[in-house]
TrEMBL record:
Protein name: GTP 3',8-cyclase
Annotated PANTHER family: MOLYBDENUM COFACTOR BIOSYNTHESIS PROTEIN 1, MOLYBDOPTERIN COFACTOR SYNTHESIS PROTEIN A
Keyword Oxidoreductase appears in the UniProt entry: no
EC number: 4.1.99.22
Cofactor: [4Fe-4S] cluster
Keyword Iron-sulfur appears in the UniProt entry: yes
Domain called Radical SAM core: residue spans: 4-226
Gene this protein is translated from: moaA
Keyword terms of this UniProt record: 4Fe-4S, GTP-binding, Iron, Iron-sulfur, Lyase, Metal-binding, Molybdenum cofactor biosynthesis, Nucleotide-binding, S-adenosyl-L-methionine
Pfam families: Mob_synth_C, Radical_SAM
């Protein structure tokens, strides 16, 4: 599939639940969000059907996300089924890591290609402040167990805040001492994220280089999206940046998103797309769904406008409901 700007769309993030066992400051209010009803969320057979259709349209890579995907019952059975779909080359998981130690053996057994662990601090008190309810020791235990599988591609996703210098350097050290990549993601001004200032990529790079030396750009393709990676001397892994605000990468965007309620979002900022759940439950054929998906992708916006105000069709949902 190509959109109207010639971008090849071969990657989709699939949210399978809006439920989460954390309450991160930039993602959810302290008391959580208004959760979708059981009947609103796609059933597993509906997810599988849509993923087969996406594969037929050229989607090759699927990221399973939430909320927290591992809190949904039998989530691994769904991942296994998606992994077996012809044309799907990679199925990866984004998780906060709280339940990872329990599930990592099975995730490897079903052939998951990679795991991204959302981790904003290694300090338990700071981690608790950011997540409100989390225990970082559980995440560390899950990461330690995952590192026992050399073929499993591991990435740490950190959303840094102003004043987080030591947190940043602590996380960078993970890539020095382990075969994994650490990525810093600018806070997206969506939902709860609007109340925070994002920490720019250039500021983080300067901090890292002050301690570890020159960062050299890595031309090797290390992920499915537009992340930019750098190498440091003596490091086992790379340092990556997803800087949608300070280094806009919309011109190379290759992804769309499917929410847990079956809404196909073509750009994170906007609420435009197509309600595939409504079509499915109205009896739409595969051909009708394919046509709806193609039309939505053709209408994908050229770029986000996060630094502008009063944007029409701007997404109002929290990140947990979108599939962050």
């Amino acid at each position: 599939m190509q959109d109207s700007f010639g971008r090849l769309i071969d990657y989709i993030r699939v949210s399978i639940t809006d439920r989460c066992n954390l309450r991160c400051l930039y993602c959810m209010p302290e008391n959580g969000i208004d959760l979708c009803g059981h009947d609103e969320v796609l059933r597993y057979e509906e997810f599988i059907r849509l993923c087969r259709i996406f594969a037929g349209l050229g989607i090759k890579k699927i990221k399973i996300t939430g909320g927290e995907a591992l809190v949904r019952k039998d989530a691994l059975h769904l991942m296994k089924a998606i992994k077996s779909i012809e044309g799907i080359e990679q199925v990866t998981l984004t998780t906060n890591g709280i339940l990872l130690e329990e599930y990592v053996d099975e995730l490897v057994r079903i052939g998951i290609n990679g795991i991204n662990i959302s981790l904003d601090s290694l300090d338990n008190s700071e981690y608790r402040k950011i997540t409100r309810v989390g225990d970082v020791e559980k995440v560390k235990a899950g990461l330690k167990k995952a590192l026992q599988y050399p073929r499993l591609k591991l990435k740490i996703n950190c959303v840094p805040f102003d004043g987080d210098k030591q947190n940043i350097l602590d996380l960078v050290a993970l890539a020095q001492n382990n075969p994994l990549h650490v990525r810093f993601i600018e806070i997206m001004p969506i939902g709860e994220g609007k109340q925070f200032n994002y920490l720019k990529e250039d500021s983080i790079k300067a901090l890292i280089e002050e301690k570890y030396g020159v960062m050299r750009f890595c031309y090797e393709k290390l992920g499915n999206g537009p992340s930019r990676y750098y190498s440091l001397q003596g490091f086992q892994g790379k340092i990556g940046f997803i800087s949608a605000i300070s280094h806009k990468f919309c011109h190379e965007c290759n992804r769309v998103r499917l929410t847990c309620t079956g809404y196909l979002k073509t750009c994170l900022q906007y609420d435009i797309g197509v309600d595939l759940s409504a079509l499915i439950r109205a009896g739409a054929s595969d051909a009708m769904l394919e046509n709806a998906i193609r039309k939505a992708v053709l209408a994908k916006p050229m770029e986000h406008s996060f630094l502008q105000k009063n944007i029409s069709c701007e997404e109002q949902a929290k990140m947990a409901a979108i599939g962050g």
